[in-house]
Amino acid sequence: MSIGVGVRIGSVVSTAVVASNDPGSADPVVIVRDTVLNQRKDGGTVLGGESELGAGREFAESWSGFVGRVGDPSGVAGSADTRYRAEDLVATSIRCLLQECEPLPDRGGRDGGAPDIVATYPSRWDSSTAAILRDSLVYAGLERITLVSDAEAVSAWFESEIAALAGTLIGIYHVDDTGAAVTLVRSGVAAGRAFGFAGDGSSPSSRIATALGAFGWMPENLDAVVVTGDGDMAGDKAAMTAIAVSVAEKLSVRCELGPGPEQSAALGAAILAAGFTSTSHQIVPIGLPPSHDVTEVFDNIPRVATATAVAVEPEAAVAVIEPAKRSYARVAIGVSAALVVIALAALAYFLLL
């Protein structure tokens, strides 16, 4: 049985996922923490905000807002004005999340050893910025981690969980507090750079059309669009839903508001770590983890016999919205630290069978 670990350090929320997409495996385990890196008085570090770590805990220093500063030579100042390079803070945050995933089995990776780990980085980054983070991971002793863009990870999640065919062309529309970015992913690989938009007044659909036009593609070439978010924008459910509905209606394309919606990349990273590839596509849904609030599909393409032909487990039901009848499914399941430990133990049990 293959097991993968996916990690995403977001600007506000960070996520780790332990999952297997083998048939009969346990549901994925999702760990969510505020992106606040705290240093204890003994020098150790822990990731999380007051809501996760509890009120009254005293730390020597804390850092936040560092993801967008990777590559900035001036570094990021903490609460006690100590400066560290942002990329080192990201690497340390990844290490903290991985420690919370313990204990992991000693096998389940693609080479027969420990589970593989895939971490994502913002799709807007160029290759030199990603290389800076890679150097910090190596320096931190985390050289076995594979890096992929958020968009490529989100595409893997969609192709593994939702898509009916391999080699699809997927538009990833990402929105955060700094603007929006459009990345086109075909057969699991990003088609060139991400297209960034900040305060230009254009609509989401026109931004996607602009990105398509740069490659000579038309909206009808798209198989789907997945809307993701980060920061405060990701928490604005009404605004995120409005974006997805608008894209579905104006481009006549299947549009999905990803889980979280900031968790889609971490889920996709875990799926990639478990060995999924677009070219060897086979739908084996890993299901919705306990921390998913909602997954919604806005399907604006008329279908005769396949309008709801998405095979999912009952607990992972996806709400398909038809043009004439649109409703929004809400799936809210509580998650606790005890469930995380139990689920991790279940994964180890299934591996040892």
Using brief descriptors, characterize the structure shown:
28% helix, 353 residues, 9 helices, alpha/beta, 18 strands, globular, 5-stranded mixed beta sheet
Can you put this structure into words, describing what you see?
Helices cover 28% and strands 23% of the residues. The chain is globular. The protein has 353 residues and is of the alpha/beta class. It contains nine helices and 18 strands. Strands 11, 12, 13, 14, 15, 16, 17 and 18 form an eight-stranded mixed β-sheet that branches. A five-stranded mixed β-sheet has the order 3-2-1-9-10. Strands 5-4-6 form a three-stranded antiparallel β-sheet, covered by helices on one side.
Give me the secondary-structure topology.
Elements: E1 4-9, E2 13-19, E3 29-34, E4 36-39, E5 45-47, H1 50-53, E6 61-64, E7 76-77, E8 83-84, H2 86-100, E9 116-121, H3 127-139, E10 146-149, H4 150-161, E11 169-176, E12 179-186, E13 189-190, E14 195-197, H5 204-213, E15 224-229, H6 231-234, H7 237-251, E16 255-257, H8 264-273, E17 296-298, E18 319-321, H9 337-352
Strand content of the residues, in percent? 15-25%
How far the N terminus sits from the C terminus, by CA atoms, comes to: 9 Å
Helix/strand-derived category reads alpha/beta
Total helical elements: 9
- Overall helicity: 25-40%
- Give the biggest sheet: 8 strands, mixed
- In total, the number of strands is 18
Q: In terms of quaternary structure, what is this?
A: single chain
Shape: globular
- Average pLDDT works out at 80
Cα-atom Rg, whole angstroms?
20 Å
Low-confidence regions: 287-341
H-E string:
EEEEEHEEEHEHEHEEEEHEHHEHEEH
